Phosphoenolpyruvate carboxykinase (ATP)
Amino acid sequence: MVLPHHTPYVTPHILHKNYAQSHDHEQHSNLIGQDLEYFSQAGFDMDRIQIKRNAPVALLYEDAIRNEGAIISSSGALINFSGKKTGRSPKDKRIVYEDTSKDDIWWGSVNIKMDEHTFEINRERAIDYLNTRENVYVFDGYAGWDPKYRIKVRVICARAYHALFMNNMLIRPTEEQLANFGEPDFIIYNAGQFPANRFTKGMSSTTSVEINFKRMEMVILGTEYAGEMKKGVFSVMHYLQPVKFGTLSLHSSANVGIEKGDVTLFFGLSGTGKTTLSADPERNLIGDDEHVWSDTGVFNIEGGCYAKCINLSAEKEPDIFGAIRYGSILENVVYNPASRVPDYDDVSITENTRCAYPIEYIANAQIPCVVDRQPSNIIMLTCDAFGVLPPVSKLTPEQASYHFLAGYTSKTPGTEDGVLEPIPTFSTCYSAPFIVLHPGRYAAMLAERMAKHNVDCWLINTGWTGGKYGSGKRCPLKYTRRIVDAVHSGELAKAEFENFGTFNLSVPTSLEGVPRELLNPSLAWADKEAFQKELRKLAGMFTKAFALYEQDVDAKVRQAGPSV
């Protein structure tokens, strides 16, 4: 007789507490036998630490739950926490100043110099810390879906959470590819639980995120925020693709038409609708964040997506909501302790709650994430809270370069304490925190490719209309979707256009399904004097922001901006 509290028919060896662990040790140690010499030479104490290379998701779940306080959510995703840092630390990012890359880097507040000796000290500090851990996780994967341009990336870390994150964000190798992986092209040493020594030369705090292009290595100290690894890989691709391969790396989403096979690139900062608008039932998603425009087409850099979760719902973002399942990681998300149901509206830990999941979890993902066809359209998204930019404008090549370099959107009142009116945000190339080369270099490559392949470029404003924030209203999503559909169908390219003054933009005079007064902001505003005032104000802000780049760009690009 089996009593209710007994477990019947248990295979005896499962009851042995060390059964799974001993198998894991044997399995994953053997996998890296060919690399033992590498790890020994790098300074790892192979007699002390247990290395788990490309460990299965289930094992990483177990370790994260056992050792890191992670829990499994009601949908099967792993919920874990990054500690004190819940976002990137841009002020602590450093690039090593060395002979092979110093003439290419755009030095300044984004790319702060670090000397080679300090990097060596921090690298040694990271490895010393990893040597104190019982488990060290290694993930070998690829960045870039096109085999001609991809790089091999090795991540070495001490948290199962970080290993699972990069398992999701890099392109996962097959068993055969892993067996023949060889020497990596880029290595990340993530010792984020251990602080940097702030008395070391060049350190400004106990956090340090640094890249050495000569050694092709990255060291992370003092932050456990997983997004640092993702953006570290992007920074390396943002350097290598233009410099080594002559291809253009982009901070953009991309999709491809299921019927016509036409490719569209979407640029846009946070809150502009990039993720929402690139998710389209008539089109397959190539990727949501990082791409390369090569001589043969467009490919995704990543193997997964890192989506914001704030106020997430199945109604608003069904694709993302459905992707939060077994294998995904929810980062810094509050949950109901009784039901384990995530509360996406709770921002008590951070507003920057995230989910990392493999791109295959998106139903209409283009797998493999590469299309051997040149883009037909580029859409630059902005959320103009001043309410003066048109919902859609057709840009000339020079205007496309100008707006790509400007990278404009606006913060709205209520997003931060003390914000009482719209604040303009200019992020060059729509990726200022990750820029490695001079912005003009990326802009020139973009213009060259647009001209060569006859690509149409559109500036789409998803912000306010009929007045600025507080008096106007947000452009309804249904109209923005209609505009994007008209871009893809070719309908908008055939429309009649009129000039929109001050910014000298070409705006369509009509588009079926979109009210006439919406297409031209001067018609949508009841107070014409107030409209002109806000228009001139925004134009002046553009001019001031663009002054940083105007000495390094062609005169035609300088003249493509607003007339003040």
